[in-house]
Amino acid sequence: MHRPRTLPMMTLLACLLAASPGRADGDRAAAQVPLHPAYRQECAACHLAYPPGLLPAASWRRLMDNLPRHFGTDASLDAATLQQLNTWLAANAGTHRKVARDPSPPPQDRITRAAWFVREHDEVPAATWTRPAIKSAAHCAACHTRADQREFRERDIRIPR
Ligand code: HEC
Ligand code: HEC
């Protein structure tokens, strides 16, 4: 009696799959990992406190090793804070599935140069990025209205004119 047993099994499997969090939910959870207080304090002074899951560990390491020469600015930290943040970043790096799927760290260790980022944003025309209200792709909050809550869902996007 094969059939009558397989069918309930398939139904059970379908229910389990439906109940498990989907890809987008997993990525939302990854983006919303609670921020280390020192990270929130030190790394949100000039731009969004980028979710650690959006870059691989190697990128965070290089960025943190070069804070005195950080994209044309000095973002230095004291040794103790640096140490704390290195540990925290290493533990939370690359958790976004899109990041894990990219073969290597992005150019300049920029989220905005990652293959997944370029793909997700391919519908944004080149001229849009340079609008005065946006200026830089790194300015996530210009379009993602809930970026400060590390929420990047489509429904929360408003592209400024
Ligand atoms: C003094 C200002 C300042 C501080 C403080 C600062 N940054 Fe930056 N950061 C910048 C600038 C400027 C850029 C380049 C932005 C652009 O290209 O529009 C940048 C870019 C970045 C990028 C790449 C963004 C992209 O294009 O994907 C990352 C990642 C980053 N910063 C992480 C950090 C971290 C981590 C800290 C805290 C240790 C930090 N920043 C603190 C000024 C700062
Ligand atoms: C010019 C406006 C703009 C800026 C600036 C911008 N984005 Fe986006 N983002 C978009 C648009 C448009 C989409 C595509 C939405 C879609 O089709 O699902 C998108 C999609 C995404 C997605 C995928 C969303 C999903 O649910 O699949 C993520 C994650 C994301 N952006 C993160 C970022 C981050 C992080 C930054 C800053 C480093 C950033 N974006 C800067 C407009 C922008």
Automatic annotation (TrEMBL):
Transmembrane segments: none annotated. The keyword Cytoplasm does not apply. It comes from Pseudaquabacterium pictum. This is Cytochrome c. Keywords: Signal. Residues 1-24 form the signal peptide. InterPro entries: Dihaem_cytochrome-c (IPR018588), Multihaem_cyt_sf (IPR036280). Pfam families: DHC. SUPFAM superfamilies: Multiheme cytochromes. The keyword Signal applies.
